[in-house]
Amino acid sequence: MNRLQRYATTVWIGITLVIAPGSAWAVQPTTIDKMELLNWTKVAPGVWQSRIGAKELAPLDYADAPKIEALESMGDAAFPFDPKATRGQIAAPHASVRLPLEPSEKVYGLGLEFEGLNRRGQVYHLKVDHYGGFKGATHAPVPFYISNKGYGVFINTARRPSFYPGISNRKDSHLPPVIDRTTGKGWSSKPLSDAVEASVQGEGLEVFVFGGRSPLEAVRRYNLYCGGGVLPPRWGLGFWHRVHTRFSAEDVMNEVAEFAKRDFPLDVLGLEPGWQDFAYPCSFDWDKGRFPDPKGFVGALRERGIFVNLWENPYIAPSSSIIDAMRPYTGSHTVWLGEVPDYTIPAAQKVLLDHHQKTHLDIGVSGYKFDEVDGVDNWLWPDHATFPSGTSAIQMRQVYGLMIQKMHMDRFRAMNQRTYGLVRSSNGGAPPQGFVIYSDYYGHEGYITALVNCSLAGVLWTPEIRSAGSPEEWVRRFQSVAFSPLMMLNAWSSGKKPWSFEPVTDMVRDVIQLRMRLLPYVYSAFYDYNQKGIPPFRAMILEAGFDTQEQMVGGALHDADNPYAETRRLESTDQYMMGPSILVAPVFKGQTSRKVVLPNGDWYDFYSGARVGGGETIEIEAPLERIPLLVKDGGIIPLMPAIPNVASAQGDLPLEVRHYGKKNGVFHLYDDDGTTFDFEKGAFSLTELRVTVQDGKPQGNVQQPQGPWPSRYGPIEWNFMTVKDK
Ligand code: GAL
Questions:
Q1: Does residue 492 line the site of ligand 1, with CB under 6 A?
Q2: Whose CA is nearest to atom 12 of ligand 1?
Q3: pLDDT digits (tens, 9 = 90+) for 553-611
Q4: Number of domain units in the chain
Q5: Which pLDDT band, with edges at 50, 70 and 90, does 6 fall under?
Q6: Is 458 part of a structural domain of the chain?
Q7: Which of 17, 132, 248, 443 is the most buried (most CB within 10 A)?
Q8: Ligand 1 mutation pick, 139, 272, 461, 481, max ligand atoms within 8 A of CB
Q9: Does residue 123 sit in the same domain as residue 152?
Q10: Parallel, antiparallel, or unpaired: how do β-strands 307-312 and 367-370 relate?
């Protein structure tokens, strides 16, 4: 080809590119009707699934089998959208979906957040991260949102999904009036949008819809579809103390003796990095200097009813006894110079689990705290790292904490031993995992918001205590953590003890003991989490009578013209429900009273039984020695004696059963062996506690325990807190 010919070809090609139909310049349709219609399959009553594109690694791969019977017993639900309005699209590099949203609808969820509740009108990029940075960068960016209309949507992806809930407007969607900003009124930088759109950079997306008549129903279906919520061992609901990282076995035994001497309960003793002979990265091997006889040490604590929990992070030290066996299964990059196992590979799981079983679990260790699984870009593996299974680094990071929980939980299950521990990252599918999330973030208010948001994401949260700037802050934080899924002092760095702030020592002991006394109530609430998917600690918007649907059907609306007014009132993030009938209202530094949003119906003071209000927002006194606790009308609360630890509370425990308000009430008191999975095969009992109020006179009835497990509760003393029986 001579120069002229080459020039002619170039010109000809250039002309073709411009005019030829079907070339790279051809016009692609950008309208909604050209997106794929989503095709929905019903996978359980009230649960639907759809997918566009390829099946990719996903969080629900790490869920347990759905609790189909429990879902069936909830009955069916209507599909919440017009199916023709649900669309998806693969347009490289993105896979996206679009689901309808009504103008006044609210969107909750999207995982663990330290701020706010309603996610509408804000973009969230969900990424497993330490915390902060941008909306959606969090320890548990669970891609699940819930509408106040009573349905939930879960995007089942291990990629980093972006959510546009009620924000961003397609040109051919229902658009609000277009306003000239110079002359018009009401111009908005975020015009109302009629959809939730979500996308990933990937080859496919799977979507689940959970129907319901209220947000609680949607959350319950999600939890049950993931296998039901965890039922922790009973001891897990007692008091946890994590000692200073440099503590030796001897230091621990001395500290434990102090707990007994000062009459402080102690159920779980947590060891921080220093139990290992190398940490950051981790050896997972006992330090023979500080812990010369691990078996004797763990055994000595067990004799005192105390369980040992071990801290670790996943990154393997060059000196670890498992490094050679693990090396074929580690990724390209290190974290703090420790190798990173690829736990999508079963052989890698086996190396770690066999080691842990032999050197930890077989000598009586009860569980773990899996730290640093959330990551921060500065120290974690980069997004371009490679792993031997071929799993991308982004996906690996997004579900790393989740897969670590699942593989350990499965090993505990194989040993028929329940566990309860901690983890610093999670994702969807986690409800059955016995691990509670915590953070290095330390805002007290944010901690309560996190607890509230976690209840919408199928994960548990502890507002752990590390230290405090004053006795007041110390006791207020203790009061909050005593009413959380895991009551813990994490003194890994501060070396603090519960009695470190002398002026409030008695108050701290009192609230720990109150939580211990409430164990029958809290344990039964966890059984409901397991069997019915009801979060034991939950946002007010999940409370029956709170949500718009119920308000519109039965209850009195606060603002008849605005059916969403009541929902908005209940979008509080500084109070929450514990179990069926206790409303917890934590108090923060500097407060001597606080506002409490009361749902409809009558509410009563836990301590006195007096009515405090109903269906209104009240100001309540908050003396330092007490956390405000309010009980719903008809609430029944069983309390056992204050005990040094749960393991020591066996056989014939006397119960004080309190009844609040004027309504009839019923409570199903759950009991089992407290440590194994035998309850799943029927080895449990439920005892019905019932109060009937007739002519102003309450009467308490106790049914015979139902089920083969002999209930450990003995004589019952009724305490009618509001309606006196005399
Ligand atoms: C942090 C963790 C703390 C403590 C510490 C030990 O990452 O959040 O709770 O375990 O590590 O080094």
A1: yes
A2: 273
A3: 333 333 444 445 555 677 899 999 999 999 999 999 999 999 999 988 899 999 999 99
A4: 4
A5: very low
A6: no
A7: 248
A8: 272
A9: yes
A10: parallel
